[in-house]
Amino acid sequence: MRVNFTVNGRKQEADDVWEGESLLYVLRERMGLPGSKNACEQGECGSCTVRLDGVPVCACLVAAGQVEGREVVTVEGLADFAKQREEGCATGACGGTSLQEAQQWQAKGTDSQTGEGDELAPIQQAFIDAGAVQCGFCTPGLLVAADELLERNAEPSDADIREALSGNLCRCTGYEKILDAVRLAAARQERQEEAV
Amino acid sequence: MGVTGTPTNINQGSKTKGGIGESTLRPDGTLKVTGEFAYSSDMWHEDMLWGHTLRSTTAHAEIRSIDTSEALAMPGVYAVLTYDDLPTEVKNYGLEIQDTPVLAHGKVRHHGEPVAIVAADHPETARRAAAKIKIEYVELPVITDEASATAPDALLIHEGRDDHHIGHVPHPNIVHRQPIVRGNADEAAKRADVIVSGEYVFGMQDQAFLGPESGMAVPGEDGGVDLYVATQWLHSDLKQIAPVLGLPEEKVRMTLSGVGGAFGGREDISMQIHACLLALRTGKPVKIVYNRFESFFGHVHRHPAKLWYEHGATKDGKLTHMKCRIVLDGGAYASASPAVVGNASSLSVGPYVVEDVDIEAIALYTNNPPCGAMRGFGAVQACFAYEAQMDKLAAKLDMDPVEFRRMNAMEQGTLLPTGQPCDSPAPVAELLRRIKAMPMPPEQQWLAAGEQADVRALPGGLSNTTHGEGVVRGIGYAVGIKNVGFSEGFDDYSTARVRMEVINGEPVATVHTAMAEVGQGGVTVHAQIARTELGVTQVTIHPADTQVGSAGSTSASRQTYVTGGAVKHTCENVREKVLEIGRAKFGSYHPAWATAELLLEGGKVVTDGGEVLADLVDVLEGESVDLELEWRHRPTEAFDLVTGQGNGHVQYSFAAHRAVVEVDTELGLVKVIELAVAQDVGKALNPLSVVGQIQGGTTQGLGVAVMEEIIVDPKTAKVRNPSFTDYLIPTILDTPTIPVDVLELADENAPYGLRGIGEAPTLSSTPAVLAAIRNATGLELNRTPVRPEHLTGT
User: What is the DSSP string of B514-570?
Assistant: First the structure.
């Protein structure tokens, strides 16, 4: 079957998709977007978390056919997504991104060799700065989940962070630095708002 | 050549200027947070096929026949290979003993053993084709424990064993045995006022790295193969892969692709040979990616163990003697079992002074899943048992458990049970003092507040199983000792290639090693070392591959020591060459070129007095220096096979934990409130990474204390829980705050004084949590992981 949907602001179509193929497989193997990770492929680890019409989901649990006509944001589009949201904030559109808004932006290309030239979302920069990235396999899913948390709760308590990220397994860090990263991103966001 | 997602040069850039001792950030961090870092499962080729493995559905059986015809006839299937298709006489591989078949022949020895492999144009086609392969098995009785393995009439797991351990093991179903006898434990026991003994059981833990086994093999025009794969030791893989393929090593070109964690689980071969065989047979690139279910069968696990311990002490609290017997279940193939036995026995006393010991450790061959390397490597199981014993002794003597440990703590100069003196700082008492002095988490806050408890903070969490009634708190302590690096006479060397040149008007160093970066941060530290030694800001880390000499394994907490040592050593020699060039070009301008001690700092040649003699750019203009050198730490020696004596280890690392837990005694649920660590790291080359490693190791120890275990059916030897639904690893809700106190007492034999870090925190974390649960409940708890039924007596 053919599936038409929007990924990181770009219209995409995938041909010859098997009925059983997951959104994760289509993203990774057909769209050339391997950022969403394949750690368990059964919805237990959260490594493939993407946003489907704004809602965080495990891409491995979504059948490709279910995304027909819908809007997907992956870690590859997270920086632009966050930027668009930030710009939208000025007009009071914080606390969620509408489908219409999401459709108006497109992820920009970066140097896929070094990642240089990337403009990072605050949560991405915070993960680097706080040392929350080790092997990094869990990182894309955690970033999407944490970004969504900060979108709806700008000042999360530790308990809020733990609850929001409890569906994302990490085997390297012991989570402490992931907590640090989310706290750091929230604090920077707050400072930025104060400055405005 | 059309492969996308191949590893890339990591340009360190000019943003980070740090040398050693600074918390510089990961050079691969940006790629990892943007999703652009190429992990081994991300490889793609326009013309690639997908490989899939058919695995045995039974643990022990003769293979009567294999029929692949239906699978081969399926559209989209390019190859179906079995044992009969292997190209040479070499059909087995193994880390130490070549006892592991590439594909099962004659019989299968464990559940999930690879029997056939398929290449097809879609992963689902490959899976469906594999399901059509017909195998006729004749079931054999399964051997699952010591009694069934060593019974006089026991079936032999490996008939006709001829490895070098067979001469000193009491039964062919024992892989290796290491006794250690020092002093006279029976005689010393007579001095004891109290004697405690216990039997301890340690469950089978899984590394559960998140990035599944995966990679891509691309056939080369020369008849060779290029393999992009996630592993811990490229050259060890190469030595095992090339003979099975019938290729010389130079025709198997290996490049490390992004590794999603390892923890010992990638020391052994998984899909490497299978992908190469399929690529060479089909002439097309072949990608294999295990799913999580297959990953549980695709790598070895931590040895489950039974441990019997006896300790004695005088009434004033001095240990008199220790006797122990440690039985490790190695499963169907040897993997790293012999070395695990060496560690378990030589570290079985723990960080304590005990002069009279009688120790025996063995590893069994059984039909259980193969076990091998995992973080802590044999020292973990022993630590769980000896720390329980320390608490028992302290209780019996009515002494404070921490004070009792401090009284018996080893120190610099103490002889280990192997007779080897510990010749570097051994701050065991100090770590215990520090861990006890760390501020305690607030008393049951939910209780003190006098308000409704936040269920998220209670055992059971959002499941809302308790509101605080029946919840009791406990505190427990533990400390452990882990060897660093490969022991027992292993030639544990590493190689580094360092190039220095001017690029775009800036002096740049390129560091090329075969070190597997598995997430631990070696790439960060190598750049820091190069900056420190060569005075440049720009350092490029070349992708790890087999075009440079071996770096040894990313395991045993050894890479910063050994490959870091190799990078340091090579940089020092590069520096000398650079200074020679400088002397030749500019020596006549200033006498200091000939007389002073010269350094490279801030892109310049400076005297030790700080006087600038030249810019590196001017020295290197038109020239480059490029050296590849090996580096070794001081040698070790094998343990005597009868007495266990010998200078077997290079270095030790020490960590201590304090656990605070709350237990819902009604439902048997545990919430770990805090898990504090104190660890000596010798020298923190990158403090941020050091803390990250300590917290990560601590969490794996927590996991095995309260939830992690591969359940193997004792009647069938089949794995019952190969999924993240049923094999539980700690989530962010299960993991407490982990405050870390880092001590830096330099080991003068190690580069910069550093100590291996990654493993020690995994040791003492588990017994500290167990001690805290015992403290809360008053139960004996001699088994890990602790499950609700152990706490409620149901």
Answer: -B--SSS-HHHHHHHHHHHHH--SEEEEPPPBTTS-----S-TT-HHHHHHHHHHHH
For A91-100, B486-495, B661-670, which range has the lowest pLDDT when averaged over its residues? Answer: A91-100
Q: A76 to chain B: which residues are within 8 Å by CB?
A: 34-36
Q: Which residue type is seen at A185?
A: A
Residues of A in contact with B263 (CB under 8 A): 171
Q: What is the pLDDT of residues B680-730, one digit of tens each?
A: 999 999 999 999 999 999 999 999 999 999 999 999 999 999 999 999 999
Q: How far apart are CA B5 and CA A28, in angstroms?
A: 12
Q: What is the pLDDT of residue A97?
A: 52
Neighbouring C-beta atoms of residue B177, cutoff 10 Å: 18
Q: What contacts B447, CB < 8 A, 6 or more positions away?
A: B453, B468
Identify all chain B residues contacting A42, using CB atoms and an 8 Å cutoff.
292, 723-725
The enclosing H or E element of B655 equals strand B651-664
* Residues of B in Cβ contact (< 8 Å) with A176: 691, 695, 735, 737-738
Chain B interface mutation, best of A38, A120, A177, highest count of B Cβ atoms under 10 Å: A38
Span A74-130, pLDDT tens digits: 999 999 999 999 887 533 344 445 555 544 555 554 444 444 556 899 999 999 999
C-alpha–C-alpha distance, residues B512 and A6, integer Å: 41
Token pair belonging to B54: 């058919």
Distance of alpha carbon B214 from alpha carbon B289, whole angstroms: 4
Could you report the per-residue pLDDT of B598-621, keeping only the tens digit for each?
999 999 999 988 899 999 999 999
Cβ contact B771:B478 at 8 Å? yes
**Predicted ipTM?**
0.95
Q: CB A114: neighbour CB atoms within 10 A? A: 18
Q: In what order do the strands lie in the sheet with B598-601?
A: B598-601, B604-607, B612-615
Quick one: pLDDT at residue B3? 53
The answer to whether the beta carbons of residues A158 and A166 sit under 8 Å apart is no
| Percent helix / strand / coil, chain A, rounded to 5 | 45, 10, 45
Closest alpha carbon to B607 in B585, B591, B592: B592
Question: Which of B23, B208, B696 shows the shortest C-beta gap to A134?
Answer: B696
Annotate B432-467 with b (16+ C-beta within 10 A) or e (fewer): bebbbeeeebeebebeeeeeebebbbbbbbeeeebe
Tell me the C-alpha distance between B557 and B64, whole Å.
44
- Rounded to a whole number of angstroms, the distance from the CA of B10 to the nearest CA of chain A is 6
Token digits of residue B273:
């040979």
Give the residues across from B10 on adjacent strands. B541
DSSP of B69-81: HHHHTSTTEEEEE
Q: How far is CA B12 from the centre of its chain?
A: 27
**Structure confidence at residue A114 (pLDDT):** 46
Residue range B583-599, pLDDT digits in tens: 999 999 999 999 999 99
Q: Which of A127, A167, A173 sits opposite B33 (nearest CB)?
A: A127
- For residue B689, what are its two tokens? 């990474």
Contact B732 A35 (CB under 8 A): no
Task: Find the length of chain B.
Answer: 794
pLDDT value at position A191? 84
Quick check: B331 and B369 in contact, CB under 8 A? Answer: yes
Give the closest residue to B784 by CA, choosing from B713, B700, B695, B723: B700
Which structure tokens are listed for A181? 């990263």
pTM of the shown model: 0.95
Would you call the peptide bond into B439 cis, given omega within 30 degrees of 0 as the criterion? no
- Least Cα distance to B483 among B650, B324, B628 occurs for B650
